[in-house]
Amino acid sequence: IGLAAPQIGILKRIFVMDCSYKEAEPDPMIFVNPEIIWASTDCRKYEEGCLSIPDIFVELERPYSVTVQHYDLEGKIRKITLEGLESICAQHEIDHLNGKLFIDYLGPIKRGLITKKMKKLKRELNRN
After folding, report:
1. How do 2-4 and 65-71 pair as beta strands?
2. Which residues are known catalytic residues?
3. What is the Cα–Cα distance from 94 to 88, expressed in whole angstroms?
4. How far is it, in rounded angstroms, from Cα 57 to Cα 65?
5. Which tens digits make up the pLDDT trace of 67-77?
6. Which of 28, 58, 92, 117 has its CA 20 to 30 A from that of 109?
7. Rounded to the nearest 10 degrees, how much is the dihedral formed by the CA atoms of 83, 36, 111, 45?
8. Full-prediction pTM beyond 0.85?
9. What are the φ and ψ backbone dihedral angles of 105, each rounded to 5 degrees?
10. Residues 6+ positions from 4 with CB-CB distance below 8 Å
11. Could you tell me if 93 and 15 are in contact, meaning their C-beta atoms sit under 8 angstroms apart?
């Protein structure tokens, strides 16, 4: 539902997301140089996964609402308040732009288990 430019080798502070339901019309949003300028104290748990760490899903707690300041494709500054899944997705993608992965929020034991699993997967892929 979201993709940050660095995930595909483009070192720019840009991400796209589309949290519309499968039956709905696509509604992609593009964020250039985004920054969270406000986050609610109300937090919710969501199960997150990531293309960078395939087949791993972890429940994380994040602010339910955030306001993101960003530029649009015409260079105009915008502010948007997002809630629920859109808020979680934006926070996740902005983390990518800041060099952070969702597993960085985990404790050392759980993060270590996931890292070990990913190293094993990488070794298996390299053998093939």
Report:
1. unpaired
2. 93
3. 10
4. 21
5. 999 999 999 99
6. 92
7. -20
8. yes
9. -85, -10
10. 14, 15, 93, 96, 97
11. yes
